[in-house]
Amino acid sequence: MDVKRLIFVTILALVLVTEGQTGVVFNFHDKLRMATATTTEDSVKTGQIIRVPDLDCPDGYRRDHLGNCRQRL
C-alpha cells in the first residue's frame, strides 16, 4: 500500500511541477510551426505552384467566382 501512495504522490508532484511550464511548450511549438510554414510567395518561387494563363471556357460553360469553368444550368 505504501508503494502505491509513493507512486501516486510522485506522479502528482510531477504533474504540478510541469503544469506551470505548459505555456512554454506550446509557445515553442507555435514558433516552430510559424518558422517552418511556407508562404504563397515562397511556394511560387520554389515551383510548387505553377501559374498558368486563363484560357477561354468551352462553349456552354461559364467561369464561376473561383475561376473554374462550370457547365451552365
TrEMBL record:
Q: Which UniProt key words apply to this protein?
A: Signal
Q: Which domain of life is it from?
A: Eukaryota
Q: Where is the signal peptide?
A: 1-20
Identify this protein by name.
Answer: Uncharacterized protein
